[in-house]
TrEMBL record:
Gene3D superfamilies: Aldolase class I (3.20.20.70), Chorismate mutase (1.20.59.10)
Domain Chorismate mutase: start-end pairs: 1-90
A Pfam short name: CM_2
Entry annotated with the keyword Plastid: no
Stored InterPro entries: Aldolase_TIM, Chorismate_II_sf, Chorismate_mutase_GmP-bac, Class-I_DAHP_synthase, CM_dom_sf, CM_II_prokaryot, DAHP1/KDSA, DAHP_syn_2
Origin species: Anoxybacter fermentans
Keyword terms of this UniProt record: Transferase
Protein name: Chorismate mutase
Superkingdom, natural source: Bacteria
MF (Gene Ontology): aldehyde-lyase activity; chorismate mutase activity; transferase activity
GO biological process, one term: chorismate metabolic process
PANTHER family, alphabetized: PHOSPHO-2-DEHYDRO-3-DEOXYHEPTONATE ALDOLASE, PROTEIN AROA(G)
Length: 360
């Protein structure tokens, strides 16, 4: 008898559940409509005052048996889910999102491809220091089949007294050496003026972690005609990285490579904490190629091989590694730059030598 009573009451609950479900989804549709209007008018989705007003109205009407606190808690959850729905719709509408473009974006640089079948290696010293240094590094990279030469001419240094880079002279040097070996140049720019200056010398503009949210600079590279390697800020969420990429893409420059380079956490045995989950998540959420900077993320050489393997296993389209012909006398990041032998054994360990030689 008791069981039958429960059965009967459960049937009643099932009917109420159906009604609640229908009402919740009807509510969600209205929330989406509000979201679209807010987006069109550049209004924030989150409206705490409206939520408060709504909770007050509900508690006034509430006659129990649920307490006011419980009612507010339940409706807060509904408002939270509604907000997510509004945000998700916007995220799906981002030009860089997978929803907007199903197929992977391939970045074509001359006869090379980033985001194709073969992972690329972007390597070179932290900073361009001299022709001898660049030649020594580039000739070894070339021997190993690496086609992308990196090197900083404008260095964003924490201390204003640290080496700031050779500027235009550094770019010129790197271009000359790269041309000698048929390599492509990747270098960081930090301002619109540097961008203009670098245009003549580089093949890929790098936007460093510190400038990931320099929106004016993002707009400038968005107007540029060359690919952009956008590094994740060390305090930035993946969503913020995606939105930063959107700034560039929305301006018309669709050639963007995302780069995970570690984020700041409490861990101090690595320079930053490499967030490897960023790789598959970004590949799911966006159609852009994703690479991993294994030097800046870890800040140490002794784990570079397993970390590089892990990055590639996670689906990275390439790696960025700092290599110097004589790291001991490097003017920046001395401890994390690989020497030429160490780099050769990394390439060997990753099985990349042949692949990079046969072209990407
Ligand atoms: O009324 C709005 O402005 C909405 O966007 C709807 C809604 C809600 O679910 O009720 C959602 C998010 C806002 O923070 C406030 C309220």
């Amino acid at each position: 008898m008791t069981l039958q009573q429960i059965e009967k009451l459960r049937k009643e609950l099932d009917l109420i559940n159906d009604q609640l479900l229908e009402l919740l989804n009807r509510r969600a549709e209205i929330v989406q409509q509000i979201g679209r209007i807010k987006k069109e008018n550049n209004l924030p989705f989150y409206d705490p005052e409206r939520e408060q007003e709504m909770f007050e109205k509900l508690t006034e009407k509430n006659s129990g048996p649920f307490s006011d606190e419980t009612i507010v808690h339940l409706f807060k959850e509904i408002a939270k889910a509604s907000l997510k729905l509004q945000e998700k719709e916007t995220e799906e509408q981002l030009l860089v999102s997978r929803e907007m473009k199903k197929e992977d974006t391939k970045i074509v640089v001359g006869d090379l491809v980033i985001g194709g079948k073969i992972p690329v290696m972007i390597a070179g010293p932290c900073a361009v220091e001299s022709r001898e240094q660049m030649k020594a590094v580039a000739s070894e990279l070339n021997r190993l089949g690496v086609s992308f030469l990196r090197g900083g001419a404008f260095k964003p240094r924490t201390s204003p007294y640290s080496f700031q880079g050779l500027g235009r002279e550094g770019l010129r040097l790197m271009r000359e050496v790269a041309d000698e070996y048929g390599m492509k140049v990747v270098s960081e720019v930090m301002s619109a003026e540097q961008l203009e200056l670098a245009e003549e010398y580089v093949d890929i503009f790098q936007i460093g972690a510190r400038n990931m949210q320099n929106f004016e600079l993002l707009k400038e590279v968005g107007n540029a005609k060359k690919p952009v390697l956008l590094k994740r800020g060390f305090m930035a969420t993946l969503e913020e990285l995606m939105l930063a990429a959107e700034y560039i893409y929305a301006r018309g420059n669709t050639q963007i490579i995302l780069c995970e380079r570690g984020i700041r956490t409490f861990e101090h045995w690595t320079r930053n904490t490499l967030d490897l989950s960023a790789v598959p998540i970004l590949k799911l959420k966006t159609h852009l190629p994703v690479i991993v900077d294994v030097s800046h993320s870890t800040g140490r050489k002794d784990i570079i091989l397993p970390i590089s393997k892990a990055a590639l296993a996670a689906g990275a389209d390439g790696l960025m590694v700092e290599v110097h012909n004589n790291p001991a006398i490097a003017r920046s990041d001395a401890h994390q730059q690989l020497n030429l032998e160490e780099f050769a054994s990394l390439m060997e360990g990753l099985g990349l030598i042949k692949k990079n030689k046969s072209g990407c």
